[in-house]
Amino acid sequence: MSTTAETAPLALGRRRMRVDGWRWTGRIFLAFMLLYTAVPMIWMLITSIKSGFAAMQFPPQWWPDEPTLASYEKLLDPQNSVGQDFLRFFWNSLFVSTVTTILSVIVAVPAAYAFSRFSFPGRNFLFFAVLLRNMFPAVIFLVPLFILMRLLGLMNTHGSLILTYLTFGLPLAIWLLKGFYDNIPVQLEQAARIDGATRFQAFILIVMPLSTPGIIATAIYSFIGAWNEYIYAYTFLTKNDQLTLPVGIQRFFSENTTDFPGLMAASFMMSVPVVVLFLVLQRYFVRALTEGAVKH
Amino acid sequence: MTIVTGKAEARRRLQSGRPGVLRQIWEHRADYAYVLPAIAVMLIVIAYPIYYTIELSFFKTPPGLQLRDKTFIGLDNYTTILTSEVFWRVTWNTLIWTLGSTLIAFVLGFATALALHREFVGRGVLRAILIIPWVISAVAASYIWKWIYHSDFGIIGAVLVGLGLADRPPNFIDSVNTVLPSLIVVNIWREFPFAMIMMMAGLQTVPEQLLRAAQVDGASAWQRFWHVTFPHLRNVSTVTILLLAVANFNSFIIPWIMTGGGPSNASHIWITHIYELAFGRQRWGVASAYSVLLFLTLMTLGYFYVRALSGNERQEGSA
């Protein structure tokens, strides 16, 4: 009796200590990850507000003596050639990504719905065939697609990119959306059908609104994928006025190799749209992964 | 769930004397309309390229893509590849790159997810910051890190010199020995957030009552993790690791932009090497044969991928 009374608080104390140990390990680890993640981004920002001369110093100026927004002004000024190019690339990226996003939602929604609801012969085969697309690297498709695009007369057009981006966005989009549809009770649709709605009406009026988070997640995914894509754009586009941002920036800075402030400013501005989009809508994305990918 | 019932149905149909696939297809014809757009796009952009790559791999092709002049040479392209020294070097690099990036990114992502699982002030902000590298373009990431690794003005070199750990800034990406690990660090920087999101989503499915019950029974934090949390996450972990492995095996941008495969092939991986063979040296036939080898490797990985995915479905069906 007396022994248990003695050991109980002791064990409790030890347990609390051990729990605290884990908590501190977690905190230190998180601090380390925060450093790892944030330092490169902070250094990008700091470099982007230096002058070209200030960036090329050793030891580096941890904070620029004379912070300047010159790099940003140069990139955003439609009057000079650098700014003209940058704004054009920006617009091209925006156009390609937006069209890709809209199309992939239009194509993925019915496909995912069918994979979730109907059982037609070859359904499983088709579903996995779609998923398998994720397995193959861009390079495998590059040579034949290059030839195909020449055949279709799509070289140097944004159409070639949109068509290609569509296919690599689709598999995950369909997979995510299918998870959403699996979670929407069929009874809801059946009730609508009994009330006289056609299958299509039930789909538009009942299922679509319920799967909005999934559609938003799909859209973010497609947009970010298209915005950041490099290898096809690098191969299919050769004319300067067609380039998208990643390729445009690379082309530009392979000529101006020492303009690191400009490069960092361009990298920063290229990242802003997708980061903002993602941060605003990340709730949906994480939820889609939870409902689509993890439970299924 | 649905897959299981689909299979069961199919089996039932088989037993009850098969009403004819064609008739089934006809009865379900309207269903195909929903999938058709997706399949059509896939066929144009996937099936045709795969076929064409396989065909080209048996041909010798003149440069400049005058593909009418190609000549059939059987398996010569394959023997050229498998006997070249570069191939083995590049394969070794690919192996280190894929395994290193995947495992470290997964472990870091998982650990971060666990550390973020507990509620604390600023958790949402911290999570958002940690996800950012995954969202920004790999091109931007490559340039940012190239600048960080810069052999004269790089910040890491400056810190090392400042702390007295090095006499002069080290050459991270211009030296044969350090280039691959340095690139892997960049790759992990971009990828661990993905593992983190997936594992965070997975952690939410671990039943809270079970953890509490284990705690009441006196299980330590480590025991609770190992016997309760971890088994629940096995499926998510498999899917995450496979997705990461495939993405890493297929990565291109980081090595291509940061080093272009150099110095002396030390950072070439399969994909960058194939790209250079095709679009740099215009050896389309060899590049295609390479792609076919890649394809076969990926099919093997793909087998496990599909099995892991359908494994999830099966388990859900039985639950």
Q: Cα distance, first to last residue of chain B?
A: 9 Å
**Rounded to an integer, what's the Rg of chain A over CA atoms?**
26 Å
CATH class of the largest domain in chain A: Mainly Alpha
What is the residue-mean pLDDT of chain A, rounded to a whole number?
81
What would CATH call the class of the largest domain in chain B?
A: Mainly Alpha
Count of domain modules of chain B: 2
- In helices, the fraction of residues of chain A equals over 70%
Q: In the CATH hierarchy, what is the architecture of the largest domain in chain A at level 2?
A: Orthogonal Bundle
CATH homologous superfamily heading of the largest domain in chain A: MetI-like
Report the end-to-end length of chain A measured between terminal Cα atoms: 51 Å
The number of helical runs of chain A is: 13
Question: What is the general shape of chain A?
Answer: globular
The CATH superfamily of the largest domain in chain B turns out to be MetI-like
How much β-strand is present in the residues of chain B? under 5%
Low-confidence stretches of chain A: 1-11
Q: What would you call the structural class of chain A?
A: mainly alpha
Q: Strand order within the widest sheet of chain B?
A: 1-2
Total number of beta strands of chain B: 2
In words, what does this structure look like?
The complex is a heterodimer of chains A (296) and B (319). Chain A is mainly alpha-helical and 296 residues long. Chain A folds into two domains: 47 residues; 225 residues, MetI-like (MetI-like fold). Chain A has 13 helices and no strands. Chain B has two domains: 42 residues, no CATH class; 199 residues, MetI-like fold, CATH 1.10.3720.10. The N terminus and C terminus of chain B are likely disordered. Chain B is an all-alpha fold. Chain B starts with a helix and ends with a helix. Chain B has a two-stranded antiparallel sheet. In chain B, 74% of the residues lie in helices and 1% in strands. Chains A and B meet through helix 1, helix 4, helix 5, helix 6 and helix 7 of A and helix 1, helix 2, helix 3, helix 5 and helix 6 of B.
